[in-house]
Amino acid sequence: MNASLNICCIGAGYVGGPTMAMIAAQCPDIRVTVVDMDAARIDQWNSDQLPIYEPGLHELVMAARGRNLFFSTDIDSGIRQAGIIFVSVNTPTKSYGIGAGSASDLTNVELCARRIAAVANGNKIVVEKSTLPVRTAESLKRVLHANANGYKFDILSNPEFLAEGTAVADLQSPDRVLIGGDETRSGQLAIQELVNVYARWVPRERILTTNLWSSELSKLVSNALLAQRISSVNALSALCEATGADVDEVTFAAGKDSRIGSKFLKASVGFGGSCFQKDILNLVYLCRHYGLNEVANYWEQVVTINTWQKTRFVSRMIDTMFNTIAGKRIAILGFAFKKNTNDTRASAAIDVCRALLNERAQLAVYDPQVTSRAILSQLAIATGLPVSDLEKRVHCESDPYRAADGADALAVLTEWDEFKSLDFEFIYRSMKKPAFAFDGRNILPHALMRAIGYDVQAIGKSFPTGAPTSAQYSEAISA
Ligand code: UDX
Ligand code: UDX
Question: Is 275 labeled as catalytic in the residue annotation?
Fold first, then answer.
């Protein structure tokens, strides 16, 4: 096997794992090794119980694993054997020092560069897969070249645009693949080498090549624009509630304009996930660094509105439930940051649950994919309470009916499809009355539930109060 056709990826996470599985599946002649310092994670990738839930991923991994896809903790051998090394380690928002709360922590990325330089036994192409601040490649180059031992390193930026929950489909058929590199001859050859990998299954016109800085910035900009759409809609959802407009009708009408488009206009309790907030804060930090304070303030509002939307949701719950939720049982339906993933990073559910716990509510949480361990550990971090204390107030349930049993309210925080068609008559009978339902994703059958007797509150909607007439009831039941 040609050495340049060996690929290594450092970081077996939500990005590295699925991306490498797709490359291995599409390119059986390329040996792909995913390495990670977390031995437990690597063990999971080598087992039947993958560390990540993602539709279609299991099949993809099983088809290539052991053939040309390998998971290992031997980072040094992975680096030595590969011609192309992807760096896909996490870059969380800095929690200390200068830039705390907004800049990205690049410690992991720099450590990877130092390791690559230290153990390399030949020329390498180093690919930034992690989302990074613009001009990180400059620092990487300096670290690599200062420790090069006579070998040549080309740096490419190849940001990942997959969304969790649809990762396999996004990797299989991406809207675009972006590869940025140096404008030198060596940089252009490196770009071509990576283009050749993706061109095995991605139409050539969808593979875009740019300079390094455009590629790095494009990832931040894409995420900022997506998040901005959600915050725009969420801001307007408050106006819809105040005026009697229905946010789903408004966004449907607006989205019909082909210049606007219908995607990413769904009002919600707030966006979450490991990328949006982190990337916008990163953009804001970058703008301030370059003295562009107006630009920084503009983008910062996207995060401000998102935080406000979560607070607003909790306030509405408390107002509706007679201004107190102390001791009340609230069934939390969904804890992941979106459907079809077990990922809870920056999930709106964390902030909502923390606020409800501050008000001394009892929580009964159900999520089809998130483990009780993950729920409790996220809430322990968010509240600062030990898990042993939390367990007295947060009950993780194995099905939605148990969660709702005896509850004062339901709160839908993730848009899992199964929540749309629960037996709402049964649930209603098992709940305390009045039975409240707070739909943070606008997926519940509102008319039916109101007809059954629930007091339903949804994002960007204001329903008339009062019991339904028997005619309304019959109409809703038959709909
Ligand atoms: C991460 C970042 O969150 C994202 O910004 C970036 O675009 C890609 O990398 P993700 O794959 O979702 O995305 O992160 P995570 O699931 O946390 O995986 C990162 C992995 O890197 C972890 O398994 C961690 O153990 C590993 N790692 C981290 C190393 O192997 N070495 C390190 O030095 C640091
Ligand atoms: C995002 C980008 O979409 C992806 O291109 C990038 O590579 C990583 O960041 P991800 O965070 O996995 O992907 O999921 P995404 O589908 O973008 O959803 C992010 C959050 O926004 C979720 O909490 C989701 O529920 C929320 N959302 C999304 C809305 O509230 N409304 C919408 O209309 C769309």
Answer: yes
